[in-house]
Amino acid sequence: MEMKIRSSSRTSGFTLIELLVVIAIISILAAILFPIAGTVRESARATDCLSKLHQLWVSATVYKADEGSYPEALMGYAEIADGAGNSTGVPYTGGALPVVGVTKIINGFMYAEQIKDSNVFRCPDNPNTLKSSTTPGNIVTAAVFPPRPVAWPVYTSGPNAGNVHEYIGDVLQPLCGTEPTTGLTYDCYTKGALAGQRKYFYKWDSYDISPLIDPSTLKPVPGIFARTYGTDWTGAPGAYDLTYQLKYKSPPDDRTILTYCTWHQTIAKTGTFPGINMGGSARKLNASLVLKLGASIFGQ
Questions:
Q1: pLDDT digit string (tens) for 84-96?
Q2: CA dihedral 244, 246, 250, 254 (to 10 degrees)
């Protein structure tokens, strides 16, 4: 009797339903892990930024000990290049003239005396990585003063007691002019042959300037950079002026800000600006409070 043996075969591999389940699981894991990885990376960049701020504070302290005052800028202004690409030492004030690269300026302030590595001046969130270019607009920019903070301090004594202190942007507006989109005052030279000419900064430089942040939205204003370091924020010295400014010989360490950086809010929307006071305390500052209080953030 002939027996028929039935062979059974099973097709190996995933069914469509199993494949869809695997894809769904991977998608869920990716949705969970990618934001965590992004947060970890941003936390590392913020830590690096705070470390650089501390280096700037140490160097600013050394600069003041050597020179008797704090520098008018931390890094230095853009300079015009000669035919060989080297610096003429002449400040760049706009136009089509060639500009030297970041590492070739010769009239820097803390660079390259106290700080020899130009990378210290660049926030890790700053996407401007060009150190040199044949097109000035690629590497340099003019800057404005941030808008007058809504909670700018008032005089506590003297003939103006109760009135709001002067603000550098208002004081310099007639001399320096305004940026057409925002109406904010440009930073400009105030003395000598260059008086009234705009100062130009390297986009690499993240601690003299950073993107202008709109106080109402906490979003960057496209293409506009604002001063974040300055020795004078009132523009009006006097017996009743704010004492926590770097233009004074011995500003109170715990109340006086050195600088802050807005790149983390610009790129990662962290809600914070890393900043440091003259006591060497570097920390993440609430972005809304900085915009509300301005350079008096540590003095409030």
A1: 999 999 999 999 9
A2: 50
- Main-chain dihedrals φ then ψ at residue 22, nearest 5 degrees: -60, -45
Q: Angle at the Cα of 190 (from 189 to 192), degrees rounded to 5? A: 90
Write down the pTM of the prediction. 0.88
pLDDT value at position 259?
A: 98
Considering only CA atoms, which of 269, 250, 264, 257 is closest in space to residue 295? 257
- Residue 106 DSSP label: S
Do residues 186 and 198 touch, judged by C-beta distance below 8 A?
A: yes
Pairing verdict, β 87-91 and 79-81: antiparallel
Q: Which residues pair with 257 in a beta bridge?
A: 277
Q: Token pair of 147, please?
A: 């808008």
User: In this structure, what token pair is assigned to residue 78?
Assistant: 């853009």
Rounded to 5°, the CA angle 182-223-100 comes to 120
Residue 12 to residues 9, 15, 26, Cα–Cα distance (Å): 9, 9, 22
Q: What angle do CA 232, 176, 153 make, to 5 degrees?
A: 35
- CA distances (Å), origin 86, targets 79, 102, 135: 9, 11, 15
Contact at 8 Å (CB) between 296 and 253?
A: no
The distance between the two most distant Cα atoms of the chain, rounded to a whole number of Å, is: 124
Q: Which two tokens stand for residue 168?
A: 């550098």
What's the CA gap between 181 and 204, in Å, rounded?
23
Residue 117 near residue 198, CB atoms below 8 Å: no
Asked whether the beta carbons of 77 and 71 are under 8 A apart, the reply is no
pLDDT, one tens digit per residue, over 97-133 is 999 999 999 999 999 999 999 999 999 999 999 999 9
Average pLDDT of the residues in 242-254: 96
Cα–Cα dist 300/297, whole Å: 6
The per-residue pLDDT of the chain, averaged, comes to 93
Q: Which of 19-33, 203-217, 236-250 has the highest mean pLDDT?
A: 203-217
